[in-house]
Amino acid sequence: MKKQADLDPRLSIGLPHPAYFPYDTTKIKFFIPTWGAQCIATFFCMTSYAAFDSFMSAMLLHICGQLELVGLSFKELVNNHSNNSELEKKFGNIVQTHDKLNR
């Protein structure tokens, strides 16, 4: 004998996301609009999650690239300095650039 699950009769079955509704979703005039609304809401949720993840990945890559450029500027400054006044001036420029990145 097959065992059936005891489901709550108020739970609407057959929708993409079963839920409780204050109306009878077994009637076709309520089922179709509810099904359509759930599909549209699912599409917008997927889009917003994908957009946020893509934005955060791009932002992280951009920040890492900018910090890499600051590091390369420091290496170039240390390896190719000729006198202290030039070193201080270039170091000041690097610090100003880094401050702009932090804003």
TrEMBL record:
<dbReference type="GO" id="GO:0007165">
    <property type="term" value="P:signal transduction"/>
</dbReference>
<keyword id="KW-0807">Transducer</keyword>
<dbReference type="Pfam" id="PF02949">
    <property type="entry name" value="7tm_6"/>
</dbReference>
<dbReference type="GO" id="GO:0004984">
    <property type="term" value="F:olfactory receptor activity"/>
</dbReference>
<protein>
    <submittedName>
        <fullName>Olfactory receptor 151</fullName>
    </submittedName>
</protein>
<dbReference type="GO" id="GO:0005549">
    <property type="term" value="F:odorant binding"/>
</dbReference>
<keyword id="KW-0472">Membrane</keyword>
<keyword id="KW-0716">Sensory transduction</keyword>
<dbReference type="GO" id="GO:0016020">
    <property type="term" value="C:membrane"/>
</dbReference>
<keyword id="KW-1133">Transmembrane helix</keyword>
<dbReference type="InterPro" id="IPR004117">
    <property type="entry name" value="7tm6_olfct_rcpt"/>
</dbReference>
<keyword id="KW-0812">Transmembrane</keyword>
<feature type="transmembrane region" description="Helical">
    <location>
        <begin position="30"/>
        <end position="52"/>
    </location>
</feature>
<keyword id="KW-0675">Receptor</keyword>
<keyword id="KW-0552">Olfaction</keyword>
